[in-house]
Amino acid sequence: MPSEPMNKKRRRKRRGNTSPPLPLPLPLPLPSSSPSSEQEQEEEQEQEEVGLVGFHLKPSASSKSHTIQPLGNLLLLSGSSSNARDPGLGSLRLLPDDLLLDILTLLPAPDLARLAAVSKPLYVFSTHEPLWRNLVLSDLGGDFLFNGSWRSTYSGLVFPHPSISIRDFYSDYLFQSWLCANLDMRPEWLCTDNIDRRRGISVDEFIARFEEPNRPVLLEGCIDAWPAISKWAPDWLIRTCGDKRFAVGPVKMTMERYFRYAAAAREERPLYLFDPRFAEKAPELGSDYEVPVFFREDLFGVLGEQRPDYRWIIIGPAGSGSSFHVDPNSTSAWNAVIKGSKKWIMFPPEVVPPGVHPSPDGAEVACPVSIMEWFMNFYSVCRKWKKKPVECVCKAGEVVFVPNGWWHLVINLEDSIAITHNFVSRRNLLNVLDFLKKPNASELVSGTKDRTSLHDKFKNAIEAAYPGTIDELILKAKEKIAREKKPTFWESVADANVGGFKFSF
Q1: Measured between alpha carbons, how far is 322 from 2 in angstroms, rounded to an integer?
Q2: Rounded alpha-carbon distances, angstroms, from residue 447 to 68, 244, 444, 481
Q3: Which fold has domain 187-458?
Q4: What phi and psi values does residue 313 have, to the nearest 5 degrees?
Q5: Before 23, cis peptide (omega within 30)?
Q6: How confident is the model at residue 7, as a pLDDT?
Q7: Compositionally biased, Pro residues: which spans (predicted)?
Q8: pLDDT value of residue 167
Q9: Residues whose CB falls within 8 Å of the CB of residue 149, separated by 6 or more in sequence, listed in order
Q10: Which listed residue, 82, 107, 117, 232, has the most CB atoms within 10 A of its CB?
Q11: Residue 412 in contact with residue 341, Cβ under 8 Å?
Q12: What is the pLDDT of residues 6-32, one digit of tens each?
């Protein structure tokens, strides 16, 4: 189950174009109960200053360096108050914040650093962390030691990066980015757990009750014997993997560098370690787990080394995860949590999640900027739908089965390590074959360089390994459709036109 949609190009919606708009908080009265400590008093005062009373920030959140507030707060102040944004921007003040930041992405690091010294508002925009994240990843690749912030990581190697305090700066766009990076998951986002949970069921029961009808399920107790459960901790992985590099977003990093980053990252979209070649790079990782008995029929295996990517190690800090996507090549998936816990939200294939807009051909998916933004904007919307999402929190030692075609979002609630596999069984073989022969297969098929000919190669390999299987499955599918369309006795004798009965002898 890839954390990024491997079978679709992802196009994130520019912030500010999301519908409905993010409900930016305004100042609210302090709760009547007195805080229990000086630290809590300080946190409450800090939240009140930026209009966050009623929200719970992460312990690491701080607004003391430069407070960015939502524009709504400015409207509630006296008429003499002004926005520190506009003075010092010159003609650039006419540009919306997102467009101004888009322009700044064109600047190299030295120019961006110089621009930060021009004026206070340009300092705010030029020190926007996503700008420096892009510079680090593009200029330094995976050869960086994260130094608490992306700007510090880059500029600390090249030039000084003084920090200054700025107040009375109002921007919905920048505030939303800061809020999404620092807001804790709210309790109401975690309380629903309506997935089927099973322990000790047989393979036949799993197939009949979940895989055949294409329904998700959380399985308990089926990976307790994995050595990975007791062994896989950051220190052990760092020692075992040594200088091997693993895929992290657009770069490759060693485990040591990645865990250093993950321990200090405080951003809206933390980088995810997500590598399909982990068992080849570190064979001990591949021997520390085994496929649960429910998922051992994997027909893509007939392709041997030519099969598309199918298994990944996934490591990420709290707040990292995957926005809504459908798994690649119409495969089903299982995801096993080894350390930590994950919040899952899933919609069946016929229900597109709110805020997600797939293109007609399925090649692109427009979605909110971050997972937290989706929760703030859209979670309450889907809770009112007749077809509500399937939700759960999957903890260490538990496995989620994701049926083919289901939309799903996953966010780590704490630092987490997981293993996931995509697979093809007889229950979804026909779906996979249909997907692989779509006219735009070159855009949709993923995990392999051989996109356009994968259908023929896979079909021929199945027919050679399992003669007659495809024809048998096609026949069963036709019989199932016929049964579902066959009228009952009373439907056969009822006259649909006049509402009476018809008899024939």
Answers
A1: 8
A2: 42, 21, 10, 32
A3: Jelly Rolls (2.60.120)
A4: -95, 135
A5: no
A6: 44
A7: 20-32
A8: 82
A9: 129, 132
A10: 232
A11: yes
A12: 444 545 555 544 444 444 443 333 233
| Per-residue model confidence (pLDDT) at position 123 | 92
Contact call for residues 128 and 48 (beta carbons, < 8 A): no
Q: How confident is the model at residue 372 (pLDDT cuts 50, 70, 90)?
A: very high
Residue 404 has pLDDT above 60, yes or no: yes
Task: Look at residues 342, 340, 336, 341 and name the one whose alpha carbon lies nearest to residue 420.
Answer: 336
Point out the least confidently predicted range of 180-184, 288-292, 314-318: 180-184
Q: How far apart are CA 221 and CA 36, in angstroms?
A: 40
Tell me the CATH number for domain 44-182. 1.20.1280.50
Q: Where in the chain is the domain with CATH 1.20.1280.50?
A: 44-182
Q: What is the mean pLDDT of residues 31-41?
A: 45
Q: How buried is 223 (Cβ within 10 angstroms: 0-12 exposed, 13-18 middle, 19+ buried)?
A: buried
State both tokens at 221: 């107790």
Q: Where is pLDDT greater, at 45 or 109?
A: 109
For the chain, residues classed under CATH 2.60.120.650 are 187-458
Count of alpha carbons within 13 angstroms of residue 255, beta-carbon side: 22
